[in-house]
Write a structure and sequence with these properties.
The chain contains 7 helices and no strands. By secondary structure, the chain is mainly α.
C-alpha cells in the first residue's frame, strides 16, 4: 500500500513543520499559491463536501485574491473535507517555481496545464515528506544512503518543467518509495516484540479502546469511526491509514511513523491525546478529558393529601 492521497481543499487546522519558526518547503503556504486545491481537484457532495465540483472548476467560495470566503466556517458550512487537506507545499512550488509566479487568472493559457501539474506535485511532495521523516529515524541509519538518494531524485522531479512533471509515472514511483519506506519502518518497528500486522485491514468501526498497537503495521488500514480511546500507537506505521471519525481520545501517537496532519485532523481526540511535538492539535478536538457532570434534577415536592 503506497502513501495516501486525499483530494480536497486547503487545511485550516494546522500542518506539520520541521522546526518552529523556520520556513518549511513541505508545509502549505497559501499566500504564495493560486488557490490550486480549490480549483484543480474535484470533490463530490458527501459528508465531507456540501456540493459537487469537477476538476478544473473554481470552488464557489474562492475569492478573487485566491483566499477562501468561508475559511473560518468550513466545518459549519459542510466542507469538512477542506479542513483535512494538506498539499505539503506543492501549491506554492507549482505557482512560484514551475510557473514562475504566473497565475491562471491573468494567464488563462496556463490554467489547464497548471491544474494537471498540481496533483502530480502534491504526490511528489508527500513522498518528500515521508522520506524526510525516514532520514530522522536512528534505527533506519543503514538505509540513509538509499533514502537520501531517493529524496534527491524526487526533489529533482519537482523542479522539472510542467511537461516533464505531467510525464512522471507517479504510481510506479510511489510503489518504489513505499517499498523503501517499509524497509525503514521494519528496522524501527523491530524494537517492539510481538508487533501486529494489520496492513490494509478493514477496521471500520472496530472496538480497539486501550489496544496495544505499538510497532504495528497499519499501512492502508481503514479505521473509519474506530474506537481507539487510550490505544498505544507508538512506533506504529500509519502510512495511508484512514482515521476519519476515529476516536483517538487519550491515545498515544507520540512516535507514530509517517503520521500526517490531515490524518489527525480527520480524527476525533481530546487534551489527553498524545501527539508528536511538530503537529498541531486540531481545533475541533475536545478541549478537556473530564466527563461533563450530569445535571441533577430537583426532586418534585409531593402534594399533601387533602
Amino acid at each position: 500500500m503506497s502513501p495516501s492521497e486525499h483530494e480536497a481543499s486547503p487545511s485550516t487546522e494546522g500542518s506539520a513543520s520541521t522546526r518552529s519558526g523556520d520556513p518549511d518547503p513541505l508545509r502549505a503556504d497559501c499566500a504564495n499559491c493560486f488557490g490550486l486545491c480549490c480549483v484543480a481537484l474535484p470533490f463530490a457532495a458527501s459528508s465531507d463536501f456540501a456540493v459537487d465540483k469537477p476538476a478544473g472548476k473554481p470552488c464557489g467560495h474562492l475569492r478573487a485574491d485566491f483566499g477562501c470566503g468561508i475559511h473560518t466556517d468550513l466545518r459549519e458550512k459542510g466542507f469538512t473535507g477542506c479542513t483535512v487537506f494538506d498539499c505539503f507545499g506543492a501549491g506554492q512550488k507549482v505557482a512560484q517555481v514551475t510557473f514562475g509566479g504566473r497565475d491562471w487568472r491573468r494567464n488563462p493559457g496556463t490554467a489547464r496545464q497548471m491544474f494537471d501539474v498540481f496533483p502530480v506535485m502534491r504526490q511528489l511532495h508527500e513522498l518528500l515528506r515521508h522520506l524526510t521523516e525516514a532520514l530522522t529515524l536512528p534505527a533506519a541509519r543503514p538505509l540513509y544512503g538509499e533514502l537520501r538518494q531517493t529524496l534527491d531524485g524526487v526533489e529533482r522531479l519537482t523542479r522539472g518543467t510542467a511537461e516533464s512533471l505531467t510525464d512522471v509515472d507517479v504510481p510506479t514511483l510511489r510503489d518504489e518509495v513505499s517499498a523503501l519506506l517499509l524497509r525503514a519502518s521494519e528496522l524501527v518497528r523491530a524494537e517492539v516484540p510481538g508487533r501486529r500486522n494489520h496492513r490494509g485491514a478493514d477496521l471500520i468501526g472496530a472496538r480497539l479502546a486501550g489496544a496495544d498497537l505499538r510497532g504495528a503495521n497499519l499501512r492502508g488500514a481503514r479505521l473509519v469511526g474506530a474506537d481507539l480511546k487510550g490505544a498505544d500507537l507508538r512506533l506504529a506505521d500509519v502510512i495511508g491509514v484512514d482515521f476519519r471519525g476515529a476516536d483517538l481520545s487519550g491515545a498515544d501517537l507520540r512516535s507514530c511513523l509517517f503520521l500526517t496532519q490531515p490524518q489527525l485532523t480527520a480524527a476525533k481526540g481530546d487534551a489527553a491525546t498524545r501527539i508528536p511535538a511538530p503537529f498541531t492539535r486540531p481545533l475541533h478536538w475536545s478541549p478537556d478529558t473530564t466527563p461533563r457532570p450530569q445535571k441533577q434534577r430537583r426532586p418534585r415536592a409531593r402534594r399533601k393529601p387533602r
